[in-house]
Amino acid sequence: MAPYAKTGGLADVIGALPAYLGQAGHDVRVVLPLYDKVDTSKIVLEAVGDFNVPLGAHAYAVRVFKKTGNSPTVYFVHCPELYARGRLYTSDNDEHRRFLALSYVALFICQRFEFAPDIIHAHDWQAALVPLLVKTLFAKDPLFRRTRTLLTIHNLMYQGSFPVEYGADTNLDRYSDLFHQDLMKQGRINFLLQGVLYADGVSTVSPTYAKEIQTAALGGGLDGLLRARSSTVVGILNGVDYDEWSPETDRFIPHRYSASNLSGKEHDKQHLLAQLGLPYKSGVPVLGIVSRLVGQKGFSLLARTMPDLLRRLGFQLVVLGSGEPALEQMFASLQRAFPRQVCFYQGFKNDLAHLIEAGADMFVMPSVYEPCGLNQLYSLRYGTVPIVHRTGGLADTVQTFSPSTGRGTGFAFEHHDEAGLRWAIQAALATYRQPAQWSQIVQNGMAADFSWQTQGRLYELVYKRLASS
Ligand code: ADP
Ligand code: GLC
Protein backbone atom coordinates (compact mmCIF):
# COMPACT_ATOMS: atom_id res chain seq x y z
CA MET A 1 0.00 0.00 0.00
CA ALA A 2 1.60 3.26 -1.19
CA PRO A 3 3.18 5.16 0.41
CA TYR A 4 3.94 2.58 3.11
CA ALA A 5 5.22 -0.42 1.20
CA LYS A 6 5.63 -0.82 -2.54
CA THR A 7 7.18 -3.09 -5.11
CA GLY A 8 4.85 -2.31 -8.01
CA GLY A 9 1.42 -1.18 -9.08
CA LEU A 10 -0.57 -3.08 -6.44
CA ALA A 11 0.70 -0.57 -3.90
CA ASP A 12 -0.62 2.33 -5.97
CA VAL A 13 -4.01 0.64 -6.27
CA ILE A 14 -4.32 -0.01 -2.54
CA GLY A 15 -3.11 3.50 -1.84
CA ALA A 16 -5.92 4.93 -3.95
CA LEU A 17 -8.97 2.64 -4.15
CA PRO A 18 -9.69 2.52 -0.39
CA ALA A 19 -9.21 6.29 -0.22
CA TYR A 20 -11.77 6.73 -2.99
CA LEU A 21 -14.19 4.33 -1.27
CA GLY A 22 -13.77 6.20 2.02
CA GLN A 23 -14.63 9.47 0.30
CA ALA A 24 -17.64 7.79 -1.26
CA GLY A 25 -18.92 7.09 2.25
CA HIS A 26 -17.93 3.48 2.85
CA ASP A 27 -16.28 2.22 6.02
CA VAL A 28 -13.04 0.83 4.58
CA ARG A 29 -10.31 -0.90 6.52
CA VAL A 30 -7.04 -2.06 5.03
CA VAL A 31 -4.97 -4.80 6.67
CA LEU A 32 -1.32 -5.11 5.74
CA PRO A 33 1.89 -6.43 7.27
CA LEU A 34 4.08 -4.01 9.16
CA TYR A 35 7.02 -4.85 6.92
CA ASP A 36 10.36 -3.63 8.22
CA LYS A 37 10.46 -1.49 5.06
CA VAL A 38 7.54 0.63 6.32
CA ASP A 39 8.90 3.99 7.45
CA THR A 40 7.18 4.30 10.83
CA SER A 41 8.77 7.67 11.55
CA LYS A 42 6.21 9.30 9.23
CA ILE A 43 3.06 7.72 10.67
CA VAL A 44 1.41 7.64 14.06
CA LEU A 45 0.56 4.11 15.15
CA GLU A 46 -1.58 3.04 18.04
CA ALA A 47 -1.50 -0.53 19.39
CA VAL A 48 -5.04 -1.86 19.31
CA GLY A 49 -4.77 -5.55 20.01
CA ASP A 50 -2.63 -8.63 20.51
CA PHE A 51 -3.45 -11.89 18.79
CA ASN A 52 -2.13 -15.40 18.86
CA VAL A 53 -2.17 -16.95 15.42
CA PRO A 54 -1.81 -20.73 15.32
CA LEU A 55 -0.92 -22.13 11.90
CA GLY A 56 -0.60 -25.91 12.02
CA ALA A 57 2.24 -26.74 14.36
CA HIS A 58 3.37 -23.10 14.41
CA ALA A 59 2.08 -20.15 16.38
CA TYR A 60 2.78 -16.44 16.07
CA ALA A 61 2.30 -13.64 18.55
CA VAL A 62 1.08 -10.63 16.63
CA ARG A 63 0.41 -7.06 17.66
CA VAL A 64 -1.93 -4.98 15.55
CA PHE A 65 -1.39 -1.26 15.18
CA LYS A 66 -3.88 1.17 13.78
CA LYS A 67 -2.77 4.20 11.85
CA THR A 68 -4.39 7.26 13.31
CA GLY A 69 -5.47 10.15 11.14
CA ASN A 70 -7.26 10.33 7.83
CA SER A 71 -9.41 7.60 6.40
CA PRO A 72 -9.07 4.85 5.37
CA THR A 73 -8.33 2.97 8.55
CA VAL A 74 -5.15 0.96 8.15
CA TYR A 75 -4.30 -1.94 10.43
CA PHE A 76 -0.63 -2.88 10.41
CA VAL A 77 0.14 -6.43 11.49
CA HIS A 78 3.33 -6.43 13.52
CA CYS A 79 5.24 -9.68 13.69
CA PRO A 80 8.97 -9.24 13.04
CA GLU A 81 9.47 -12.98 12.86
CA LEU A 82 7.36 -12.94 9.68
CA TYR A 83 7.68 -9.48 8.21
CA ALA A 84 11.21 -8.26 8.98
CA ARG A 85 12.95 -9.73 5.94
CA GLY A 86 14.29 -6.63 4.23
CA ARG A 87 11.86 -7.14 1.35
CA LEU A 88 8.16 -7.69 0.96
CA TYR A 89 8.13 -11.02 -0.84
CA THR A 90 10.54 -13.91 -0.31
CA SER A 91 11.06 -17.48 -1.44
CA ASP A 92 11.59 -18.58 2.14
CA ASN A 93 9.96 -21.81 3.19
CA ASP A 94 7.46 -20.01 5.42
CA GLU A 95 6.20 -17.65 2.70
CA HIS A 96 2.75 -19.27 2.85
CA ARG A 97 2.60 -18.71 6.62
CA ARG A 98 3.57 -15.06 6.27
CA PHE A 99 0.36 -14.45 4.36
CA LEU A 100 -1.83 -17.00 6.10
CA ALA A 101 -1.08 -15.07 9.27
CA LEU A 102 -2.15 -11.86 7.51
CA SER A 103 -5.37 -13.52 6.32
CA TYR A 104 -6.28 -14.87 9.75
CA VAL A 105 -5.47 -11.62 11.50
CA ALA A 106 -7.74 -9.73 9.10
CA LEU A 107 -10.63 -11.94 10.19
CA PHE A 108 -9.64 -11.80 13.88
CA ILE A 109 -9.64 -8.00 13.65
CA CYS A 110 -13.22 -8.07 12.36
CA GLN A 111 -14.23 -10.26 15.31
CA ARG A 112 -12.36 -8.31 18.00
CA PHE A 113 -13.75 -4.96 16.84
CA GLU A 114 -17.16 -6.33 15.88
CA PHE A 115 -16.76 -5.10 12.37
CA ALA A 116 -19.13 -7.02 10.09
CA PRO A 117 -17.88 -6.39 6.56
CA ASP A 118 -20.32 -6.54 3.67
CA ILE A 119 -17.37 -7.20 1.40
CA ILE A 120 -13.93 -8.58 1.97
CA HIS A 121 -11.79 -7.60 -0.97
CA ALA A 122 -8.80 -9.95 -1.15
CA HIS A 123 -5.84 -9.13 -3.39
CA ASP A 124 -3.65 -11.75 -5.08
CA TRP A 125 -2.61 -15.18 -3.82
CA GLN A 126 -1.45 -13.75 -0.52
CA ALA A 127 -5.05 -13.16 0.56
CA ALA A 128 -6.72 -15.74 -1.65
CA LEU A 129 -7.52 -18.23 1.11
CA VAL A 130 -9.72 -15.70 2.92
CA PRO A 131 -12.85 -16.62 0.91
CA LEU A 132 -12.41 -20.27 1.89
CA LEU A 133 -11.78 -19.36 5.55
CA VAL A 134 -14.97 -17.28 5.59
CA LYS A 135 -16.93 -20.20 4.14
CA THR A 136 -15.49 -22.76 6.60
CA LEU A 137 -13.85 -21.97 9.94
CA PHE A 138 -15.53 -18.56 10.26
CA ALA A 139 -18.92 -19.56 8.85
CA LYS A 140 -20.39 -20.14 12.30
CA ASP A 141 -19.74 -16.58 13.39
CA PRO A 142 -22.91 -14.55 12.67
CA LEU A 143 -20.65 -11.56 12.14
CA PHE A 144 -19.81 -12.90 8.68
CA ARG A 145 -23.33 -14.00 7.79
CA ARG A 146 -23.71 -11.32 5.14
CA THR A 147 -20.08 -11.08 4.14
CA ARG A 148 -19.28 -11.64 0.47
CA THR A 149 -15.77 -11.96 -0.93
CA LEU A 150 -14.14 -10.49 -4.00
CA LEU A 151 -10.76 -11.76 -5.16
CA THR A 152 -8.78 -9.44 -7.40
CA ILE A 153 -6.02 -10.97 -9.48
CA HIS A 154 -3.29 -8.43 -10.17
CA ASN A 155 -1.00 -10.95 -11.80
CA LEU A 156 -2.05 -14.51 -12.52
CA MET A 157 1.52 -15.75 -12.83
CA TYR A 158 2.08 -15.42 -9.07
CA GLN A 159 -0.17 -18.13 -7.65
CA GLY A 160 1.19 -19.20 -4.28
CA SER A 161 1.72 -22.84 -5.21
CA PHE A 162 3.16 -24.94 -2.38
CA PRO A 163 3.89 -28.59 -1.51
CA VAL A 164 0.78 -30.34 -0.26
CA GLU A 165 2.42 -30.89 3.15
CA TYR A 166 2.17 -27.14 3.77
CA GLY A 167 -1.60 -27.59 3.78
CA ALA A 168 -1.52 -28.42 7.50
CA ASP A 169 -0.50 -24.80 8.19
CA THR A 170 -3.81 -23.55 6.81
CA ASN A 171 -5.69 -25.17 9.76
CA LEU A 172 -8.11 -26.48 7.14
CA ASP A 173 -7.33 -30.23 7.42
CA ARG A 174 -10.96 -30.90 8.25
CA TYR A 175 -11.90 -29.32 4.97
CA SER A 176 -9.24 -30.93 2.81
CA ASP A 177 -11.98 -32.12 0.46
CA LEU A 178 -12.45 -28.47 -0.49
CA PHE A 179 -8.93 -28.31 -1.89
CA HIS A 180 -8.44 -29.13 -5.56
CA GLN A 181 -8.14 -32.91 -5.45
CA ASP A 182 -6.19 -33.59 -8.65
CA LEU A 183 -3.64 -31.02 -7.69
CA MET A 184 -3.28 -32.55 -4.24
CA LYS A 185 -2.63 -35.91 -5.85
CA GLN A 186 0.17 -34.17 -7.74
CA GLY A 187 1.53 -33.03 -4.38
CA ARG A 188 0.57 -29.33 -4.54
CA ILE A 189 -1.82 -26.82 -3.10
CA ASN A 190 -2.41 -23.51 -4.83
CA PHE A 191 -3.70 -20.49 -2.93
CA LEU A 192 -4.85 -18.47 -5.93
CA LEU A 193 -6.68 -21.45 -7.37
CA GLN A 194 -8.53 -21.91 -4.06
CA GLY A 195 -9.49 -18.26 -4.22
CA VAL A 196 -10.83 -18.61 -7.75
CA LEU A 197 -12.91 -21.57 -6.56
CA TYR A 198 -14.39 -20.00 -3.41
CA ALA A 199 -14.50 -16.23 -3.84
CA ASP A 200 -18.00 -14.97 -4.51
CA GLY A 201 -16.60 -12.76 -7.23
CA VAL A 202 -13.33 -12.69 -9.16
CA SER A 203 -11.94 -9.62 -10.83
CA THR A 204 -8.80 -8.58 -12.56
CA VAL A 205 -7.37 -5.24 -13.50
CA SER A 206 -8.35 -4.76 -17.13
CA PRO A 207 -11.07 -6.06 -19.45
CA THR A 208 -8.58 -7.50 -21.94
CA TYR A 209 -6.63 -9.33 -19.22
CA ALA A 210 -9.93 -10.72 -17.91
CA LYS A 211 -10.34 -12.39 -21.31
CA GLU A 212 -6.69 -13.38 -21.68
CA ILE A 213 -6.54 -15.27 -18.37
CA GLN A 214 -9.33 -17.48 -19.69
CA THR A 215 -7.07 -18.70 -22.50
CA ALA A 216 -4.38 -21.38 -22.34
CA ALA A 217 -1.70 -18.89 -23.44
CA LEU A 218 -2.02 -16.56 -20.45
CA GLY A 219 -4.16 -18.63 -18.08
CA GLY A 220 -1.23 -20.01 -16.11
CA GLY A 221 -2.98 -23.39 -15.84
CA LEU A 222 -6.03 -21.81 -14.17
CA ASP A 223 -7.79 -20.86 -17.41
CA GLY A 224 -10.15 -23.83 -17.25
CA LEU A 225 -11.34 -22.89 -13.76
CA LEU A 226 -11.62 -19.24 -14.74
CA ARG A 227 -13.70 -20.19 -17.78
CA ALA A 228 -15.93 -22.26 -15.54
CA ARG A 229 -16.51 -19.16 -13.41
CA SER A 230 -16.63 -16.87 -16.42
CA SER A 231 -19.88 -15.18 -15.43
CA THR A 232 -18.30 -13.84 -12.23
CA VAL A 233 -14.95 -12.80 -13.74
CA VAL A 234 -14.83 -9.07 -14.47
CA GLY A 235 -12.04 -6.78 -15.61
CA ILE A 236 -11.86 -3.29 -14.10
CA LEU A 237 -9.04 -1.03 -15.20
CA ASN A 238 -6.96 0.47 -12.44
CA GLY A 239 -7.43 4.15 -11.90
CA VAL A 240 -4.76 6.78 -11.41
CA ASP A 241 -4.32 8.78 -8.26
CA TYR A 242 -4.03 12.15 -9.98
CA ASP A 243 -3.16 13.78 -6.65
CA GLU A 244 0.10 11.84 -6.82
CA TRP A 245 0.59 11.68 -10.57
CA SER A 246 -0.14 15.00 -12.32
CA PRO A 247 2.38 17.35 -13.89
CA GLU A 248 0.39 20.34 -12.59
CA THR A 249 1.01 19.44 -8.94
CA ASP A 250 3.80 16.84 -8.82
CA ARG A 251 6.05 17.66 -5.85
CA PHE A 252 8.92 15.57 -7.26
CA ILE A 253 9.43 17.55 -10.46
CA PRO A 254 11.14 20.95 -10.57
CA HIS A 255 8.99 22.45 -13.33
CA ARG A 256 5.24 21.95 -13.29
CA TYR A 257 3.28 22.07 -16.50
CA SER A 258 -0.12 21.40 -18.01
CA ALA A 259 -1.71 20.54 -21.35
CA SER A 260 -2.16 24.22 -22.13
CA ASN A 261 1.43 25.14 -21.30
CA LEU A 262 4.04 22.46 -21.82
CA SER A 263 7.14 24.63 -21.45
CA GLY A 264 7.92 23.10 -18.05
CA LYS A 265 8.22 19.68 -19.63
CA GLU A 266 11.27 20.69 -21.67
CA HIS A 267 12.89 22.08 -18.52
CA ASP A 268 12.15 18.85 -16.68
CA LYS A 269 13.82 17.01 -19.52
CA GLN A 270 16.95 19.13 -19.12
CA HIS A 271 16.89 18.55 -15.38
CA LEU A 272 16.45 14.80 -15.81
CA LEU A 273 19.35 14.53 -18.24
CA ALA A 274 21.58 16.71 -16.06
CA GLN A 275 20.79 14.56 -13.02
CA LEU A 276 21.70 11.43 -14.92
CA GLY A 277 24.83 12.92 -16.49
CA LEU A 278 23.58 12.87 -20.08
CA PRO A 279 23.98 15.81 -22.49
CA TYR A 280 20.86 17.72 -23.53
CA LYS A 281 20.30 18.69 -27.12
CA SER A 282 17.09 20.31 -28.24
CA GLY A 283 15.13 18.09 -30.62
CA VAL A 284 16.73 14.81 -29.48
CA PRO A 285 13.95 12.64 -28.06
CA VAL A 286 14.32 10.85 -24.72
CA LEU A 287 12.74 7.44 -24.18
CA GLY A 288 11.99 6.43 -20.59
CA ILE A 289 11.59 3.12 -18.77
CA VAL A 290 10.59 2.64 -15.12
CA SER A 291 10.01 -0.97 -14.24
CA ARG A 292 10.59 -4.10 -12.28
CA LEU A 293 13.13 -5.90 -14.43
CA VAL A 294 11.48 -9.29 -14.83
CA GLY A 295 10.58 -11.50 -17.80
CA GLN A 296 6.95 -10.28 -17.81
CA LYS A 297 8.06 -6.81 -18.85
CA GLY A 298 9.46 -8.03 -22.18
CA PHE A 299 12.79 -6.17 -22.17
CA SER A 300 14.60 -9.09 -23.75
CA LEU A 301 13.38 -7.58 -27.06
CA LEU A 302 15.64 -4.61 -26.43
CA ALA A 303 18.90 -6.55 -26.31
CA ARG A 304 19.19 -6.95 -30.06
CA THR A 305 17.14 -3.99 -31.29
CA MET A 306 18.39 -1.11 -29.15
CA PRO A 307 22.04 -0.89 -30.21
CA ASP A 308 21.08 -0.56 -33.86
CA LEU A 309 18.19 1.84 -33.19
CA LEU A 310 20.31 4.04 -30.90
CA ARG A 311 23.05 4.20 -33.50
CA ARG A 312 20.76 4.96 -36.42
CA LEU A 313 18.18 7.20 -34.81
CA GLY A 314 20.27 9.03 -32.21
CA PHE A 315 17.66 9.21 -29.41
CA GLN A 316 18.44 8.92 -25.69
CA LEU A 317 17.22 6.26 -23.26
CA VAL A 318 16.85 6.54 -19.48
CA VAL A 319 16.07 3.44 -17.48
CA LEU A 320 15.13 3.10 -13.82
CA GLY A 321 14.65 -0.38 -12.47
CA SER A 322 16.00 -3.41 -10.72
CA GLY A 323 15.39 -7.10 -10.79
CA GLU A 324 16.80 -10.04 -12.70
CA PRO A 325 20.60 -9.82 -13.03
CA ALA A 326 20.58 -10.65 -16.76
CA LEU A 327 18.29 -7.69 -17.50
CA GLU A 328 20.28 -5.38 -15.24
CA GLN A 329 23.43 -6.42 -17.10
CA MET A 330 21.78 -5.81 -20.45
CA PHE A 331 20.95 -2.20 -19.51
CA ALA A 332 24.35 -1.69 -17.90
CA SER A 333 26.09 -2.81 -21.07
CA LEU A 334 23.88 -0.57 -23.22
CA GLN A 335 24.98 2.31 -21.03
CA ARG A 336 28.64 1.36 -21.46
CA ALA A 337 28.27 1.13 -25.23
CA PHE A 338 26.33 4.42 -25.54
CA PRO A 339 27.53 6.60 -22.64
CA ARG A 340 26.10 9.83 -24.10
CA GLN A 341 22.77 8.30 -25.03
CA VAL A 342 21.88 5.78 -22.34
CA CYS A 343 21.67 5.99 -18.56
CA PHE A 344 20.66 3.01 -16.43
CA TYR A 345 19.83 3.82 -12.81
CA GLN A 346 19.70 0.53 -10.96
CA GLY A 347 17.40 0.68 -7.94
CA PHE A 348 13.97 1.74 -6.73
CA LYS A 349 13.52 5.50 -6.54
CA ASN A 350 10.08 7.09 -6.47
CA ASP A 351 11.19 10.69 -7.10
CA LEU A 352 13.19 9.63 -10.14
CA ALA A 353 10.18 7.65 -11.42
CA HIS A 354 8.17 10.90 -11.36
CA LEU A 355 10.97 12.87 -13.01
CA ILE A 356 11.26 10.33 -15.82
CA GLU A 357 7.49 10.47 -16.43
CA ALA A 358 7.80 14.24 -16.72
CA GLY A 359 11.13 14.58 -18.52
CA ALA A 360 10.93 11.81 -21.11
CA ASP A 361 9.24 12.30 -24.48
CA MET A 362 8.18 8.65 -24.82
CA PHE A 363 7.77 5.73 -22.45
CA VAL A 364 8.54 2.13 -23.44
CA MET A 365 6.56 -0.89 -22.14
CA PRO A 366 7.10 -3.95 -24.33
CA SER A 367 5.47 -6.28 -21.78
CA VAL A 368 4.90 -9.91 -22.77
CA TYR A 369 1.69 -9.66 -20.76
CA GLU A 370 0.41 -6.81 -18.60
CA PRO A 371 -2.62 -7.18 -16.31
CA CYS A 372 -3.13 -3.42 -16.26
CA GLY A 373 0.06 -1.41 -16.07
CA LEU A 374 0.13 1.97 -14.43
CA ASN A 375 3.13 3.64 -15.97
CA GLN A 376 1.48 4.01 -19.36
CA LEU A 377 -1.42 5.75 -17.61
CA TYR A 378 0.97 8.08 -15.79
CA SER A 379 2.79 8.70 -19.08
CA LEU A 380 -0.43 9.74 -20.81
CA ARG A 381 -1.10 12.36 -18.14
CA TYR A 382 2.48 13.66 -18.36
CA GLY A 383 2.33 14.05 -22.15
CA THR A 384 4.90 11.27 -22.48
CA VAL A 385 3.85 9.11 -25.39
CA PRO A 386 3.64 5.39 -24.59
CA ILE A 387 5.15 2.74 -26.87
CA VAL A 388 3.62 -0.57 -25.81
CA HIS A 389 2.93 -4.16 -26.76
CA ARG A 390 -0.79 -4.51 -27.39
CA THR A 391 -1.64 -6.82 -24.48
CA GLY A 392 -3.79 -6.72 -21.33
CA GLY A 393 -4.34 -3.28 -19.86
CA LEU A 394 -1.91 -1.76 -22.36
CA ALA A 395 -4.31 -2.75 -25.16
CA ASP A 396 -7.20 -1.15 -23.29
CA THR A 397 -5.49 2.15 -22.61
CA VAL A 398 -3.17 2.98 -25.53
CA GLN A 399 -4.39 3.33 -29.11
CA THR A 400 -2.00 3.73 -32.00
CA PHE A 401 -1.99 7.24 -33.38
CA SER A 402 -3.47 7.71 -36.82
CA PRO A 403 -2.24 10.82 -38.66
CA SER A 404 -5.30 10.78 -40.91
CA THR A 405 -7.88 10.93 -38.11
CA GLY A 406 -5.68 12.63 -35.52
CA ARG A 407 -6.86 10.06 -33.02
CA GLY A 408 -4.75 7.82 -30.80
CA THR A 409 -2.49 8.26 -27.80
CA GLY A 410 0.59 6.16 -28.50
CA PHE A 411 2.09 3.32 -30.48
CA ALA A 412 1.05 -0.27 -29.82
CA PHE A 413 2.70 -3.18 -31.60
CA GLU A 414 0.75 -6.34 -32.24
CA HIS A 415 3.21 -9.23 -32.01
CA HIS A 416 5.74 -9.53 -29.25
CA ASP A 417 8.81 -9.69 -31.42
CA GLU A 418 11.74 -7.53 -32.44
CA ALA A 419 10.09 -6.40 -35.67
CA GLY A 420 7.08 -5.19 -33.68
CA LEU A 421 9.12 -3.15 -31.24
CA ARG A 422 11.29 -1.77 -34.02
CA TRP A 423 8.21 -0.67 -35.95
CA ALA A 424 6.68 1.05 -32.93
CA ILE A 425 9.84 2.95 -31.95
CA GLN A 426 10.46 4.05 -35.53
CA ALA A 427 6.85 5.17 -35.97
CA ALA A 428 7.02 7.13 -32.72
CA LEU A 429 10.28 8.83 -33.71
CA ALA A 430 8.95 9.67 -37.18
CA THR A 431 5.87 11.27 -35.63
CA TYR A 432 8.06 13.17 -33.16
CA ARG A 433 9.66 14.90 -36.15
CA GLN A 434 6.21 16.20 -37.21
CA PRO A 435 5.51 18.85 -34.55
CA ALA A 436 1.83 19.29 -35.37
CA GLN A 437 1.16 15.57 -35.18
CA TRP A 438 3.24 15.21 -32.06
CA SER A 439 1.37 17.98 -30.36
CA GLN A 440 -1.91 16.26 -31.25
CA ILE A 441 -0.88 12.92 -29.81
CA VAL A 442 0.41 14.55 -26.61
CA GLN A 443 -2.85 16.45 -26.20
CA ASN A 444 -4.92 13.32 -26.82
CA GLY A 445 -3.04 11.48 -24.07
CA MET A 446 -3.19 14.31 -21.56
CA ALA A 447 -6.95 14.60 -22.06
CA ALA A 448 -7.58 10.91 -21.27
CA ASP A 449 -9.14 10.30 -17.87
CA PHE A 450 -8.49 7.20 -15.80
CA SER A 451 -9.42 8.65 -12.44
CA TRP A 452 -10.51 6.53 -9.47
CA GLN A 453 -13.75 8.52 -9.49
CA THR A 454 -14.69 6.50 -12.54
CA GLN A 455 -12.93 3.21 -11.84
CA GLY A 456 -13.89 3.15 -8.16
CA ARG A 457 -17.54 3.38 -9.10
CA LEU A 458 -17.18 0.19 -11.12
CA TYR A 459 -15.90 -1.59 -7.99
CA GLU A 460 -18.85 -0.24 -6.03
CA LEU A 461 -21.19 -1.77 -8.59
CA VAL A 462 -19.47 -5.14 -8.22
CA TYR A 463 -19.59 -4.89 -4.41
CA LYS A 464 -23.30 -4.08 -4.53
CA ARG A 465 -24.03 -6.97 -6.86
CA LEU A 466 -22.14 -9.35 -4.58
CA ALA A 467 -23.71 -7.98 -1.39
CA SER A 468 -27.18 -8.61 -2.76
CA SER A 469 -26.38 -12.11 -4.00
P1 ADP B 1 3.89 -3.82 -11.88
O1 ADP B 1 2.90 -3.70 -10.78
O2 ADP B 1 3.75 -5.08 -12.67
O3 ADP B 1 5.29 -3.61 -11.43
P2 ADP B 1 2.68 -1.34 -12.88
O4 ADP B 1 2.92 -0.59 -14.14
O5 ADP B 1 1.29 -1.62 -12.52
O6 ADP B 1 3.57 -2.66 -12.95
O7 ADP B 1 3.23 -0.50 -11.64
C1 ADP B 1 4.56 -0.20 -11.44
C2 ADP B 1 4.65 0.85 -10.35
O8 ADP B 1 5.89 0.69 -9.68
C3 ADP B 1 4.62 2.26 -10.87
O9 ADP B 1 4.09 3.13 -9.89
C4 ADP B 1 6.11 2.54 -11.09
O10 ADP B 1 6.41 3.91 -11.10
C5 ADP B 1 6.71 1.84 -9.90
N1 ADP B 1 8.09 1.38 -10.08
C6 ADP B 1 8.50 0.26 -10.71
N2 ADP B 1 9.84 0.15 -10.67
C7 ADP B 1 10.28 1.24 -9.99
C8 ADP B 1 11.58 1.71 -9.62
N3 ADP B 1 12.69 1.05 -9.94
N4 ADP B 1 11.65 2.86 -8.91
C9 ADP B 1 10.51 3.54 -8.59
N5 ADP B 1 9.28 3.16 -8.93
C10 ADP B 1 9.16 2.02 -9.61
C1 GLC C 1 0.44 -6.21 -11.15
C2 GLC C 1 0.50 -6.15 -12.67
C3 GLC C 1 0.29 -4.76 -13.23
C4 GLC C 1 -0.85 -4.06 -12.53
C5 GLC C 1 -0.61 -4.06 -11.03
C6 GLC C 1 -1.71 -3.37 -10.24
O1 GLC C 1 1.67 -5.97 -10.57
O2 GLC C 1 1.73 -6.68 -13.16
O3 GLC C 1 0.00 -4.85 -14.61
O4 GLC C 1 -0.97 -2.73 -12.99
O5 GLC C 1 -0.56 -5.38 -10.57
O6 GLC C 1 -2.97 -3.92 -10.50
Write up this protein.
The chain has 469 residues and is an alpha/beta fold. The chain folds into 2 domains: 246 residues, Glycogen Phosphorylase B (Rossmann fold, 3-Layer(aba) Sandwich), CATH 3.40.50; 188 residues, Rossmann fold (3-Layer(aba) Sandwich). It is built from 17 helices and 16 strands. The strands form 4 sheets. It has a 6-stranded parallel beta sheet, with helices on both faces. Strands 1-4-3-2 form a 4-stranded mixed beta sheet. The longest helix is centred in the N-terminal third of the chain and has 18 residues. The two termini are 29 Å apart. The mean pLDDT is 97. Bound molecules: adenosine-5'-diphosphate and alpha-D-glucopyranose.
Explain the layout of strands and helices.
Layout: H1 9-23, E1 29-33, E2 45-55, E3 58-67, E4 73-78, H2 80-83, H3 95-112, E5 119-123, H4 130-135, E6 148-153, E7 161-163, H5 181-185, E8 188-190, H6 191-198, E9 201-204, H7 207-212, H8 223-228, E10 233-235, H9 263-276, E11 286-293, H10 300-313, E12 316-323, H11 325-337, E13 342-346, H12 350-359, E14 362-365, H13 375-381, E15 385-389, H14 392-397, E16 411-413, H15 418-432, H16 435-447, H17 452-467
Helix pairs in contact: 1-17, 9-12, 10-11, 10-15
Could you name the key traits of this structure?
469 residues; alpha/beta; Rossmann fold; six-stranded parallel β-sheet; 16 strands; 38% helix; binds adenosine-5'-diphosphate; binds alpha-D-glucopyranose
